[in-house]
């Protein structure tokens, strides 16, 4: 192949700006077909975005010989099924995060990938954004010495502009998403912790439901010890009754600190022996495009896997460990 010809299964609202156009604009990449169960909406997306083909059946894309790779953009309930079917059909797969609803499903997906000759990547796309790549580079440079402690706080109401709108609020339906907003947003954060600090050797936590009308736990607290002895403490609250909004992460090192936001601000604040340095990293228009470019290169044999299924399993193991089993 000299380019990857893509099909999207589950071309919903998240594909409008965040990901869909990235498949058209990335080098060596072409979006040729989209699928949504609502055929009218699939056709509308194809017409507006200049996509040649559309369908209301996933099988149409899976059986299309013109398609090399499938982007599984459905809610998590379908990730395992469509990944297995795409691999069986001889397609590479780029699967949305979280990789599955829980660790058990994630392992099944990883086993399917391991037993296939096709390639699979997980859409932890923030690891390819300039802000988070700069943090990774800074930590690896040793400029601030050894990292010691991470403190993460995320607080917001259950309804917030940060959460993409959808026809059905599936993100808070555990049978579809695996849990609540924690399952939707925390995978990005936990994935970056893995990228920065390696394997988590000890993982423990608990959760509770503060909003009585919620169908899942909306407050989560977790701790981890990484293999390099970095200690992590995280607190997530998606039931803020006073409309408090907070999205902060602070990495404390021997010689300074790194402070940033995962979702709400492009500002990076580094405090070291040279003083305080503030930098801004505006995200790209299509936030997944850098990751799509890396995935396409990997599928073409020109690069390493930017996020493999083993990482996806580790993220789901963290999430499972943080959620109280009832």
Description:
The protein is α/β, with parallel strands linked by helices and 326 residues long. The protein has helices spanning 20-25, 39-49, 58-62, 79-88, 103-114, 130-141, 174-177, 181-197, 289-299, 309-322; strands at 4-9, 29-35, 53-55, 69-72, 92-95, 120-122, 147-155, 200-208, 219-226, 231-237, 246-253, 256-260, 267-272, 275-280. It has 10 helices and 14 strands. An 8-stranded mixed β-sheet has the order 8-9-10-7-11-12-13-14, covered by helices on one side. Helix 4 runs parallel beside helix 5 (103-114) and helix 5 packs antiparallel against helix 10 (309-322). The longest helix has 17 residues, at 181-197. The mean pLDDT is 95.
What are the SSEs and their pairings?
Blueprint: E1 4-9, H1 20-25, E2 29-35, H2 39-49, E3 53-55, H3 58-62, E4 69-72, H4 79-88, E5 92-95, H5 103-114, E6 120-122, H6 130-141, E7 147-155, H7 174-177, H8 181-197, E8 200-208, E9 219-226, E10 231-237, E11 246-253, E12 256-260, E13 267-272, E14 275-280, H9 289-299, H10 309-322
Parallel strand pairs: 1-2, 1-4, 2-3, 4-5, 5-6, 7-10
Antiparallel strand pairs: 7-11, 8-9, 9-10, 11-12, 12-13, 13-14
Helix pairs in contact: 4-5, 5-10, 8-10
Count of structural domains: 2
Mean residue pLDDT: 95
Query: Shape, please?
Result: globular
How far do the termini sit from each other? 49 Å
Structural class comes to: alpha/beta
The CATH architecture name of the largest domain reads 2-Layer Sandwich
Strand content: 25-35%
* DSSP, total strands: 14
Low-confidence stretches: none
Biggest β-sheet: count, sense, barrel?
Answer: 8 strands, mixed
**CATH topology group of the largest domain:** Dihydrodipicolinate Reductase, domain 2
CATH class (first level) name of the largest domain: Alpha Beta
**What's the CATH superfamily of the largest domain, by name?**
Dihydrodipicolinate Reductase, domain 2
Strand order of the largest sheet: 8-9-10-7-11-12-13-14
> Count the helices. How many?
10
Order of helices and strands: EHEHEHEHEHEHEHHEEEEEEEHH
- Helical fraction equals 25-40%
Q: Give Rg in angstroms.
A: 20 Å
């Amino acid at each position: 192949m000299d380019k990857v010809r893509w099909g999207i299964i589950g071309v919903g609202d998240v594909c409008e700006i965040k990901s869909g156009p990235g498949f058209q604009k990335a080098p060596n990449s072409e979006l040729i077909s989209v699928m949504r169960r609502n055929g009218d909406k699939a056709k509308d997306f194809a017409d507006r975005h200049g996509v040649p083909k559309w369908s209301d059946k996933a099988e149409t894309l899976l059986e299309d010989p013109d398609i090399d790779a499938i982007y599984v953009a459905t809610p998590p309930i379908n990730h395992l099924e469509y990944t297995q079917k795409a691999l069986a059909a001889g397609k590479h797969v780029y699967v949305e995060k979280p990789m599955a609803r829980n660790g058990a499903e994630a392992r099944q997906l990883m086993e399917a990938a391991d037993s296939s000759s096709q390639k699979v990547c997980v859409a932890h796309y923030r690891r390819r954004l300039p802000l988070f790549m700069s943090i990774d580079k800074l930590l690896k440079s040793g400029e601030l010495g050894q990292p010691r402690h991470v403190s993460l706080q995320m607080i917001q109401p259950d309804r917030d502009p940060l959460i993409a709108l959808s026809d059905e609020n599936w993100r808070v339906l555990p049978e579809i998403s695996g849990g609540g907003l924690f399952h939707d947003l925390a995978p990005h954060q936990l994935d970056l912790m893995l990228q920065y600090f390696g394997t988590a050797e000890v993982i423990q936590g608990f959760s509770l439901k503060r909003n009585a009308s919620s169908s899942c736990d909306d407050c989560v607290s977790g701790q981890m010890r990484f293999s390099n002895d970095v200690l992590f403490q995280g607190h997530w609250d998606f039931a803020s009754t006073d409309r408090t909004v907070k999205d902060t992460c602070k990495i404390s090192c021997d010689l300074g600190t790194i402070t940033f936001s995962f979702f709400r601000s492009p500002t990076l604040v580094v405090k070291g022996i040279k003083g305080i340095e503030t930098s801004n990293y505006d995200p790209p228009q299509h936030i997944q495009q850098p990751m799509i470019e890396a995935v396409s290169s990997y599928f073409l044999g020109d690069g390493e896997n930017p996020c493999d299924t083993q990482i996806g399993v580790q993220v789901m193991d963290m999430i499972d460990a943080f959620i109280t089993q009832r």
